[in-house]
Amino acid sequence: MDKNNCSVDLRKLILMLSIVSGLVIVVSAFYAAYSVQRQQLIQASLANNYVYADKLAKTTDDFLGSAQQQLMFSAAVLSGKLNDKSTLASEVDRIRLQTDSFNSVLIVDVTTEVLATSPEALQITGLKLSTPGVLESIRQRAPVISNPYVSTAGNLLIFISHPIFSGNGDYLGFVAGTVYLKKKSALHRLLGEHYHKDGSYIYVVDQNRRLIYHPNAARLGETVDNNPLIDRLVQGDEGESIIVNSEGVEMLTGFAIARKTGWGVVAQRPMRAALAPLDNLMQQVVYKTLPAVILCFVVIVWSAKKISMPLRMLADGAQRMNDDGTEKNIQNVKSWYFEAQELKKAMLLGVGLLHGNIRKLREDLHKDPLTGLGNRRSLDAALQKFKNLQMDFSVLSIDIDYFKTVNDTHGHDVGDTVLQHLAQFLSHICRVDDVPCRVGGEEFIILLPGTHKVDAAKIAERLRQNVEATEIPVVGKITISVGISCYPEDARDVFAVFKHGDEMLYQAKRHGRNRVEVFRPARADAEASA
Ligand SMILES: Nc1nc2c(ncn2[C@@H]2O[C@H](COP(=O)(O)OP(=O)(O)OP(=O)(O)O)[C@@H](O)[C@H]2O)c(=O)[nH]1
């Protein structure tokens, strides 16, 4: 098959397969390592975020618990002193300034009238308030942590209160602190400290799906619906999850509940940020393993070449089976492994047989199958050769006398035997360069290169005598007639030389057969004019 038409070159195929399998191995090894590491990193990050959210939830609980304790302590101090304006004023200042837990502190009596407030700048002392925090505190007469709401002064806040009872258990009012959600507050410090710079953030949502804390201040107070994660938080669920946030960023999320308020604390980190160290690590791995991988590929290419080379050379040999040098080329192929060795042996055997057959076919093409002498093709080839070499030659045109009688008397097969016998006679008298041929039924020609008329006549005469003297089985003795002409002595045209030879043969027949007649131009002319 032609190399160019061949669908795949073996060397390229081996090379391609080796490289592809090498790549597949390397890439899948990398991919497997990357996937495992990635999964581990995601799990670790999710777990971290959950721990983080849980810790913040507990810290928030602790903060609120501590805030309530402060108010409880103050409520005990204030019991029986609600009429003491200066005590009330100094107590609200103490609570606010000493602990820094509240943005504002106020004392309210049972009629909802504000008895004292810190800071004074709020200017609500003496006012009766009907905010959700005040009303809930009055109604419950128990410690309260309100849901977020907007205060009279327009601040989004939560309201933490503790009831004040007299010595004999009468409800007198409450002391309360507010924590602003949109302005700086203790809660902000608590949650904001943990804010990551890599896109990680936390947010807190209350039971009404309202954002209590969010790094984006504009969203504070916003009620978030249609958020599966917040749905879970509202149901009291805790755990970890991979979600896509409102900005379409994939987030690794941990979420936990602050028990005192039921608030959900969500800590989340962008997947990309969590995996960034892994990407760096894999980059390093790639850089470090690259030389080994390149070396591997060089070895693969070299091996592929080494393996395919003998096969390539054998394939080349197969493409040129007919050429004479092919056998030698195949011999030279270095078949260093078993399969190539066997292939080489088989090909050498094949080439040997092929060349043998070709040789035989060529010979057969130029041979008369009955007698083994040359045929008309070999005669033409010999003439071409003499012409090329500018060689003189003589032509003996030979015909068996009365051959028809032989056939008629003894049968065609015996006639064939006679032809074979005559062929043997011809072969015996021929030298190496002479060309004996059978050109018709019982017509033979011998070309005698470098032989002139006199010698040709002697050879023909000797042949004639030998044939005449030899007994052929079944048939007995036969005779032959021979006509002789020479090139270029008798004609410069080869065709004419043969014609003269034929004429001489028929002349021998006419003159009684069993004769040798030599063409003589002058005499031929004379005969022609007579
Ligand atoms: N056995 C056999 N006979 C052949 C073959 N080719 C031709 N012949 C016979 O050779 C004979 C030739 O006879 P003719 O050319 O008529 O003449 P002849 O009998 O040889 O007589 P002259 O040539 O005149 O001496 C014919 O009978 C052909 O059938 C062959 O291959 N085998």
The overall average pLDDT, rounded, is 89
Q: Do you know the CATH topology of the largest domain?
A: Alpha-Beta Plaits
Show unreliable segments.
Answer: none
Shape: rod-shaped
Number of E-type strands? 18
The amount of beta strand, in percent, is: 15-25%
Q: Any guess at the CATH architecture of the largest domain?
A: 2-Layer Sandwich
Can you walk through the features of this model?
The protein is of the alpha+beta class. It folds into 4 domains: 60-177, PAS domain (Beta-Lactamase, 2-Layer Sandwich), CATH 3.30.450.20; 186-273, PAS domain (Beta-Lactamase); 320-363, no CATH class; 376-529, Alpha-Beta Plaits. The protein is 52% helix and 19% strand. Strands 1, 2, 3, 4, 5 and 6 form a 6-stranded antiparallel sheet that branches. Strands 8-7-11-10-9 form a 5-stranded antiparallel sheet. Helix 1 packs antiparallel against helix 2 (85-99), helix 6 (271-319) packs across helix 7 (326-332) and helix 6 runs parallel beside helix 8. The longest helix is centred in the first third of the chain and has 69 residues, at 10-78. The two termini are 69 Å apart. The mean pLDDT is 89. It binds guanosine-5'-triphosphate. Guanosine-5'-triphosphate is lined by residues 399-405, 407, 412, 415-416, 419, 441-442, 509, 513. Its EC number is 2.7.7.65. It catalyses: 2 GTP = 3',3'-c-di-GMP + 2 diphosphate. Keywords: Membrane, Transmembrane, Transmembrane helix. This is diguanylate cyclase.
